[in-house]
Amino acid sequence: MQKNTLQTAAKITHSLGVRDQYSEGHAQRVSCFARRLALRLRLPDNEVHDIRTAGLLHDIGKIRFSSRVFRNVKERPSKSMLRQIKKHPEMGKAILLNLRFSPRVIDYVYCHHEREDGTGYPRGITGDKIPLGAKIIGVADTFDALITDRPYQKGRSLPEAFDVLRKLSGSSFDPVLVETFIREITANGI
After folding, report:
1. pLDDT of amino acid 152
2. Burial class (CB in 10 A: 0-12, 13-18, 19+), 166
3. At residue 71, does pLDDT exceed 90?
4. CA 172, 177, 180, 185 torsion-angle sign
5. 69 Cβ contact partners less than 8 Å away, ≥ 6 residues apart
6. Which domains are seen in the chain, by residue range?
7. pLDDT of residue 75
8. CA torsion, points 176, 179, 183, 186, in degrees to nearest 10?
9. Which is nearest to 50 in space by CA: 109, 93, 97?
10. Residue 175: pLDDT above 60?
11. How many Cα atoms within 13 Å fall on the side-chain side of residue 134?
């Protein structure tokens, strides 16, 4: 069952990758980073599996975006485009509900942009109200965005990315998750 879920998630992610090459590689990296953090935290195997699956699917709501969003990759998104982008967790939740993914995977995808201090989206929930798997994916997602080259910005070095994560620690991210993640990457590389 778990293998089938991951295969299905990979196929869905590939369909997004056809429209946006960055998204497919990003989803795979986020899934890998999130899995590594979950393992370092010694979470149960079934939870690690759900975090890995949700990491692959975290941006799947973007598949419903207009082609216009994917064409403007050479510049930072406009305010109207950002409003559309911020809807992707809700769109992802709807897609995964229709595909009958586990409630936990759906929650992780839906909440991966929530932040400790309530400044995230889609609901602006805080702290313990955010599922642990979503918090883990949020750290992994941000880290990958920081270190990856984009047409409009060069990826940062590991020390620079770690500095950014530490600055966001406590406000955006759980400090224990940030430090555990940094230890994992420092010990085992990217």
Report:
1. 74
2. middle
3. no
4. negative
5. 62, 77, 81, 84, 85
6. 2-188 (1.10.3210.10)
7. 66
8. 160
9. 109
10. yes
11. 27
